[in-house]
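seq:
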Amino acid sequence: MRGLVSLGKASALVLLCIGFASATITNPHGAASAVANVTLGPSGLPLPRFVSLKSGRVNARIGPSFSYPVAWLYLKEGLPVEILQEYDTWRKVRDADGAEGWINQSLLSGRRTGIIAPWQKGKDAELPLFAEPDKKASSVALIEPGVIGTIRSCNGQWCELDFSGRTGWMAQTLVWGAYPGELIKD
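struct:
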């Protein structure tokens, strides 16, 4: 295991801290079954779909207007969220913990990111990031559940991710931010 880097608690806190949400995910791919029946929203883009937060401070409201109270305050730029519904310039989103709220589209980015196995967050586990999309490939890093990476591509079974300059492959089923079987090109 020489040369293996562990991205652990300190890195996760500094680089990828999510300072909220207490719910536990029981189904790691929330709306995965809906992907087969993709519909287009008023924007002409598919629903549901994954995006990420553009800013390090984003309010999620209980309704689609600035007049609605804030339900959540997200403090992590790049956090992946799933758009479930569209109304005018507002998007109803769900986070990896299942919390839902309305966010103005100006605060969302099409940049794809993913949270690694958030359903295992808090458990003493590290998941290998492989050099190639193959379980027999060498590991380039160990990633703790809950860490966020940028999705570079997914081939339907594996996703190539970047974690602060460390790039490798992880099984797509471990990435909340890409639907099972979804193809993503950089």
